[in-house]
């Protein structure tokens, strides 16, 4: 009888355990639909589609908030790269790693809100908002281990768009800093500086003591002699003009890794007929690209140079592989020299030498380029109306 009761008890316990086990997988597999994308995305998943060292202690570089930049109609948020030291046993901490790009983990719906980016308070064109991956990339920084610290990146959000502040754009703002080889990509979180210990929030301050009664007023003095009227105060200085639109002022895929079209980092200059100077860049190809970008092998329509607007009128001609090419100098919506109507389908090992013939005073790279550092920012563009619109941005010097 005891054996029979034990058998029945064991069977009942087994039924209960099976019921519990059958419930567990369903509960564990059901996600919270109200959770945001960033809460679901672990550090190992950001930056996306990358094989690199994400451990923050492996790299010396961090991103910290800096003083904001003010432009009418925009909210500007600025961040500086700092060197805080790192784990010397890591290959990403050998003292030779620079900074090639910075990526932010952002909300895809904020794409239309980010209108411009500056680098060290100057307009900067090498950035891309990839809504499909929820990533904002600021690329082609080309900073060495010595020049990276102190580099400042500012993001400008339109006050008329749906994401008007940093919290809406990226929450706590997860970021990643890439080296030139893209095998080091430490991931961190932007943390605002804490309040000073001497600052007490208003809601926690003790109530002020009641004010003492005022003393009786003194007797009224004799009226003074009238003074001559004071001169009018000087008119306030007008606000500084906003920086020019970023290059290029259009919505396109700017990431160099998105295309197999590439640009040599070297600019060549040589004398030309008529006292002109030929300033040339070499468009080349590479073997790999981000296959998800849609821009791997687009037809090359034009090459744009970011230039000083004061150089209008100094562009005389343009050539592609020695043959005359269509060219134009535009000043609005952003200053640029365009060598257009190239109609070059992508081919492996393609090589194009694109030259612009300039006269003084803009016949040097230093005078022509807007970077103020003997370099020029260059964009390679797909045909108008192409989907997606491609414009990988490079810097040549």
TrEMBL record:
Residues 204-247 have a biased composition (Pro residues). The keyword Signal applies. Keywords: Signal. Residues 202-249 are annotated as: Disordered. It comes from the Eukaryota. Residues 1-29 form the signal peptide. The keyword Signal applies. Residues 46-186, 247-392 form the Pherophorin domain. This is Pherophorin domain-containing protein. It comes from Volvox africanus.
């Amino acid at each position: 009888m005891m054996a029979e009761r034990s058998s029945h008890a064991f069977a009942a316990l087994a039924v209960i355990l099976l019921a519990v086990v059958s419930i567990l997988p369903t509960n564990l597999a059901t996600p919270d639909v109200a959770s945001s994308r960033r809460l679901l995305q672990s550090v190992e998943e950001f930056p996306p589609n990358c094989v690199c060292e994400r451990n923050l202690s492996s790299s010396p570089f961090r991103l910290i908030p800096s003083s904001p930049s003010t432009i009418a109609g925009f909210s500007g948020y600025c961040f500086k790269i700092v060197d805080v030291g790192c784990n010397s046993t890591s290959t990403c901490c050998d003292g030779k790693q620079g900074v090639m790009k910075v990526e932010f983990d952002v909300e895809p719906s904020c794409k239309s809100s980010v209108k411009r980016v500056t680098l060290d308070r100057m307009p900067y064109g090498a950035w891309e908002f990839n809504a499909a991956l929820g990533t904002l990339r600021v690329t082609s920084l080309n900073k060495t281990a010595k020049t990276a610290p102190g580099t400042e990146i500012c993001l400008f959000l339109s006050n008329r768009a749906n994401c008007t502040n940093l919290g809406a754009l990226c929450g706590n703002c997860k970021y990643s800093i890439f080296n030139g080889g893209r095998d080091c990509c430490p991931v961190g979180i932007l943390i605002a500086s804490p309040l000073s210990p001497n600052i007490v929030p208003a809601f926690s301050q003790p109530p002020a003591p009641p004010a003492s009664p005022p003393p009786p007023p003194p007797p009224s003095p004799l009226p003074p002699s009238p003074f001559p009227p004071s001169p009018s105060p000087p008119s306030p200085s007008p606000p500084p003009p906003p920086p020019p639109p970023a290059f290029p002022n259009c919505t396109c895929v700017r990431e160099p890794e998105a295309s197999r079209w590439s640009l040599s980092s070297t600019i060549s200059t040589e004398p030309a007929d008529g006292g002109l100077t030929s300033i040339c860049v070499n468009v080349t190809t590479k073997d790999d690209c981000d296959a998800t970008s849609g821009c791997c092998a687009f037809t090359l329509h034009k090459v744009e140079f970011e230039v000083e607007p004061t150089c209008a009128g100094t562009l005389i001609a343009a050539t592609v592989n020695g043959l005359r090419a269509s060219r134009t100098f535009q000043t609005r919506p952003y200053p640029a020299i365009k060598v257009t109507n190239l109609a070059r389908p992508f081919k492996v090992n393609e090589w194009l030498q694109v030259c612009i013939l300039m006269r003084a005073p803009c016949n040097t790279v230093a005078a022509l380029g807007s970077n103020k550092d003997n370099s020029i920012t260059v964009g390679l563009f797909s045909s108008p109306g192409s989907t997606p619109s491609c414009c990988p941005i490079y810097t040549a010097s």
